[in-house]
Amino acid sequence: MRYRLTVVLGIAFVVATLLGNTAAAQETETPDEETIAQLQDGADVYSAVCAGCHQQGGTGIEGTFPPLRGNTAVEDAEYVAQVIANGREGRIEVNGVEYDGAMPAFSTLSTDEVTAVIAYIQNDFVVPGGGPFEAPSTLPVAGTQLPELTGMAIVAAFMLAAAVIVFVLAPRIIGATDRVTLPWLDAWLKTALIVGFFIIGTVFVPSLVIQSDIVTDLPRELQDIIGSGLWGGALLIGLAGLWWFHRENRI
Question: What is the value of pTM for the model shown?
């Protein structure tokens, strides 16, 4: 009788211990409200900034945008943070597939936003208790459009300054000139106009277009064609302009 009672008590103790450990494990594994809120913030940042290329759920587009799901590189939070802040270029291989593209930097994201999106990615793109995915508000994440707007403002400022200079000093810059007795001021102004055009036309404008949201969503090959076309077009226009101005004795 005592033996049976001992066995029953032993079994009951083992079962109670297992149930207690399971409950404790479940309690430990259940994220707190702060963690869930961070994961939700990360999901919102990912949807607004990352999903356009890496796709919802981090599946990527084979051969174009590398996947984040199943990518061992994203296990290193410090590495992911550096890529987000500085961007990345060059050839990489993920799950046996090669990718050769460029990811722009998102240095204007706050530290909390970067931490949240990394946590969301490393949590396998899951927000506990979040239910089915819902697209975030149409408002962009703070700072994600700032670099593009800043670049456009810089180009506009350069173009406006060049237009003012041409308007005020038109006779000196684009007027006919005697190449033998060309004053040094006229020579410097004409040189500045030529250099300014080539910098804006072959550097700033192609860079802005390539970094725009519309173009970054296109396949890499098409991006290269657009960039090369803009650069080549500006170069041809500049060379044609130089030829015409030279023929008209304006340079």
Answer: 0.43
